[in-house]
Amino acid sequence: MSDQGAGPTSSLAPPPPSGPPPKMTNRGRSADPISSSNSDSTDMPEFEPFGVPGPRGFPPMTEFLDISSVDMMKGPDESNKKQHRTAMFNSDYLIVRRGQEFQVRISFNRPYKPATDTFAVEFVIGSSPQYSKGTYIPVFPTKERQSSWEGRVVDAADLTVTMGVTPAANCIVGKYHMYVAVKTPFGIRRTRWDKSQDLYVLFNPWGPDDAVFLDDESERQECVMTEMGIIYHGSYDDIAERNWNYGQFNYGVLDACLYIMDRSDMPITNRGDPMKVTRKASAMLNSRDDDGVLVGNWSGDYTYGVAPTSWTGSTDILLTYASSKMPVSFAQCWVYAAVFNTFLRCLGIPSRVVTNFFSAHDNDGNLKTDIILDESGRIDRVRTRDTIWNYHCWNECYMSRPDLPTGFGGWQVVDATPQETSDGMYRCGPASVQAIKHGHICFPFDAAFVFAEVNSDVVFYTRSKDGSLEPVKVNRTHVGRMVLTKTPGDVTRRDITDQYKFPEGSTEERTVLEKAEQYGCGRDKSDLPEADVDLVLPAMEISVGDDFELSLEFVNRSGERRTVDAYINGSVVYYTGVTSSEFLFSNPTVTIEPNKSEKGELVEVKSKRYMKSLVEQANLHFIATGKVKETGQIVTAMKVVTLHNPKLTVAVSNGGKVNEEMTATVEFTNPFTFSLEGVYIRMEGPGIMLPMSKYYSLIPGNSSLTWTEYFIPQRAGSSRLMASLDCPALRQVYGTAPVTIGDRSL
C-alpha cells in the first residue's frame, strides 16, 4: 500500500499547543483550593445578609451596635508584648504566643449590652478560610458560646470593651487578619480589613499545652530569646569558636520565615505541628530540590557569592532570600545550622546549634568508615573514598513526639545541610536524641543516619595484590568524639556527648549497638589482636604561615625489640575530610627497644609547601601508618591540626545609650609578606548594629587598615559586636567586642 498522499490532515493527534502552559489547579480533586500561602488572603465581606433586602433595601442600622475603632494594644510597653515575650521583635504588628491570652480594646458607638448585643472577634488565615480547618476562628465574649479560641470580656467601661482572646495551644502558626463582627436582625456587619490589625501567632514554649513546651526557664531564655550564638568548630583537641548573630527579632525576619513556608507550598493547616514545620524547613533551608534558602559550596571558589566564612549573622541571608525570591550563595554546615536556628527561634521553637567532632558521613548504613592500606601499610588514597568530617553542625529543637513511645520527646535533631535524601528530598529529622542514644534507629525521622554520624567505626583494611581486603585495625572511639553546644546564659561551651551515646566500651554501649544491628545497621565484627606498638602524633598549635617540625613517637609495650616501617602522610583537607592536596610524605624505619619509646626523626615542614594549597578551614591532616616487621601488625595514628588565623581587633566607644550615636572600629594587620586581594569586612551586633560591610581591593603585606563606622543602638542591655574578614587567600578571620548599652533615660 502506498503512503503517497498521506499528510498532516490524516493524523488523528491534536495539533501541538501554543502559548504558555495552563496553570495547574486542584479543580476536580477538591471543592476548595488548598491554601498554602500565608501571604494570600480573602477579604471577609463587610455585610453578610440573612436574607434578601426588601423593595427599599435594608432598613438603616443606626440604632444597632456598631464598631468605632479597634486598638490591638501592641505598644512595646503594653501588657500584650511583655506577657507574650515578644517586645524584642522589631515589628509594627502585635505578635503573641498561642495558648496564652492577649487583649484587644474595641470601641462601639454606644455601651455594649451583653443581654441583647452579639459580637465576635474573627481571625482568618490563608486564602480559603474554613471553620472546620482552623483557618477561620470566631471568638465570642460569652461563656455560653465558645470556639477553639477562648474569649472573655476583661473590662467594659462606657463605650469600650476590652476583650481577652486565648488562641488554642495547637493552632496554626502564622499571620492572621482580624475583624470585629456584630450581629443585627438583618445580617452580620464587620469591620473593613485593616492591615494594622493583623496578628502574628507563634509557638509557645512557656505554654504547658503547647507541643514545644520547655519547662526550664534558663533553656527557654537561651534557646528562644537569645540572639547571640557561639558555634564551635576546629578539631576536638583544639576547639575554635565562631560568634553568630541569629537576629530572630530583626525587622523583616519573621516575615522571611513565613515566606520560607509559603515557598515550600506547605499547607496552612500543617503549620501548627512543630514536627511538620521543622521537617519541611529542613528541606527548605538548602536549595537542593526546591530552590530553598542557601546554596551549598565546599569548592573554595566563591566568586559569584559570599564565602561561607564571611557571614556573621542570619539577617542578610533571610532578607535577601525573601526579597530576591532566589537562593543565596554560599553556605556550609554551620551556616545552614545558624540560619535554621534563626528560623526556629523566630517562630518560637526552642533550638540550639550543636557541633559533632569527627562526624561520619554514612551513606550505606553499615556504621563503617573504610581506610584502605596497601600491603606495606601505606594509605591508598585512590581507593579510600569514605570521609569523616572534622566537625559537623546541626540543630536540636525541643518538642513532644506523640508519634513515638513515651520518653522520646524532648530534643530532636534536625539538619539542613544536604548530605543524603530522606523521603526523596535533602533533609534530616526531626530525630529523637533519646532514640539515637538508645539505638532505636527505626524511629522516624532519619535516626539511623544521625546514629551513624556519632557511632561509626573506623576500619583499616590491607589490600592485597589480588584486590581482596582484610581488616587489620578497628578504631571504635574516633567518630563522635565530642558533641558541644553553648551553655545557657553563658559564653562557655557545654559537652552533651552523653546525651547521644553511652561511655565508650560500657555495657550500655554494647547493648545499644546490638539493638542497632537488629534494626539492620551492620557493623564490623572483627576481633583483632591489639598491636603492642603505639604511634603518637604530638599536639601542635600552628599559625597560618608558620614553619614547623613534626615528630612521631613510637611506644613499644612488649618485652621484645620491635622494628616498624612507617609512613607519615600530611595533607591539606577540607573540614569535610576531603583531601585538597598532599604536602608531606616520609617513610622512616624505627627500631624500638623492649618497653621503651623512640622518637622518629624530625620532619621539617616549610609554610610554602602547604600555603599555596590551603583551603578556607586551614586544616592539616596527618595520618601515620606502620607495619611491625616482627608481627606483621598494622599500627596507625591520625591527627587534624587547625592552623590559627590572625585576629581582627574590634573596639567600641564608651558610654553607649539607646538612640545615641556610637562608633565601632575594626583594625587588622596583614601578617604576611604577600598582599591580600579582594578583601571584605563585615560587622554587626544584636540590637545595636544591622549588618554592614566594606570592601578593600588590596591590603599590602605587613600593612594595616582601620575601619570606623557610626551606629545607633536600639536596645538597652549587654550585646556583642562581631566582625569578619574574608578574601580568597585568607578565610575565617574574626574579632568581637562586648558592648553594654544603657537606657537613654538614665
UniProtKB/TrEMBL annotation:
<keyword id="KW-0479">Metal-binding</keyword>
<feature type="compositionally biased region" description="Low complexity">
    <location>
        <begin position="1"/>
        <end position="12"/>
    </location>
</feature>
<keyword id="KW-0808">Transferase</keyword>
<feature type="binding site">
    <location>
        <position position="509"/>
    </location>
    <ligand>
        <name>Ca(2+)</name>
    </ligand>
</feature>
<dbReference type="Pfam" id="PF01841">
    <property type="entry name" value="Transglut_core"/>
</dbReference>
<feature type="active site">
    <location>
        <position position="415"/>
    </location>
</feature>
<keyword id="KW-0106">Calcium</keyword>
<feature type="active site">
    <location>
        <position position="392"/>
    </location>
</feature>
<dbReference type="InterPro" id="IPR014756">
    <property type="entry name" value="Ig_E-set"/>
</dbReference>
<dbReference type="InterPro" id="IPR038765">
    <property type="entry name" value="Papain-like_cys_pep_sf"/>
</dbReference>
<dbReference type="Pfam" id="PF00868">
    <property type="entry name" value="Transglut_N"/>
</dbReference>
<dbReference type="InterPro" id="IPR023608">
    <property type="entry name" value="Transglutaminase_animal"/>
</dbReference>
<dbReference type="GO" id="GO:0072378">
    <property type="term" value="P:blood coagulation, fibrin clot formation"/>
</dbReference>
<dbReference type="GO" id="GO:0007399">
    <property type="term" value="P:nervous system development"/>
</dbReference>
<feature type="binding site">
    <location>
        <position position="457"/>
    </location>
    <ligand>
        <name>Ca(2+)</name>
    </ligand>
</feature>
<comment type="similarity">
    <text>Belongs to the transglutaminase superfamily. Transglutaminase family.</text>
</comment>
<feature type="domain" description="Transglutaminase-like">
    <location>
        <begin position="325"/>
        <end position="418"/>
    </location>
</feature>
<dbReference type="InterPro" id="IPR036985">
    <property type="entry name" value="Transglutaminase-like_sf"/>
</dbReference>
<dbReference type="GO" id="GO:0003810">
    <property type="term" value="F:protein-glutamine gamma-glutamyltransferase activity"/>
</dbReference>
<dbReference type="InterPro" id="IPR001102">
    <property type="entry name" value="Transglutaminase_N"/>
</dbReference>
<dbReference type="InterPro" id="IPR002931">
    <property type="entry name" value="Transglutaminase-like"/>
</dbReference>
<feature type="binding site">
    <location>
        <position position="504"/>
    </location>
    <ligand>
        <name>Ca(2+)</name>
    </ligand>
</feature>
<dbReference type="InterPro" id="IPR013783">
    <property type="entry name" value="Ig-like_fold"/>
</dbReference>
<feature type="binding site">
    <location>
        <position position="455"/>
    </location>
    <ligand>
        <name>Ca(2+)</name>
    </ligand>
</feature>
<protein>
    <recommendedName>
        <fullName>protein-glutamine gamma-glutamyltransferase</fullName>
        <ecNumber>2.3.2.13</ecNumber>
    </recommendedName>
</protein>
<dbReference type="InterPro" id="IPR036238">
    <property type="entry name" value="Transglutaminase_C_sf"/>
</dbReference>
<dbReference type="GO" id="GO:0046872">
    <property type="term" value="F:metal ion binding"/>
</dbReference>
<feature type="compositionally biased region" description="Pro residues">
    <location>
        <begin position="13"/>
        <end position="23"/>
    </location>
</feature>
<dbReference type="InterPro" id="IPR008958">
    <property type="entry name" value="Transglutaminase_C"/>
</dbReference>
<feature type="compositionally biased region" description="Low complexity">
    <location>
        <begin position="31"/>
        <end position="55"/>
    </location>
</feature>
<dbReference type="InterPro" id="IPR050779">
    <property type="entry name" value="Transglutaminase"/>
</dbReference>
<feature type="active site">
    <location>
        <position position="333"/>
    </location>
</feature>
<keyword id="KW-0012">Acyltransferase</keyword>
<dbReference type="Pfam" id="PF00927">
    <property type="entry name" value="Transglut_C"/>
</dbReference>
<feature type="region of interest" description="Disordered">
    <location>
        <begin position="1"/>
        <end position="61"/>
    </location>
</feature>
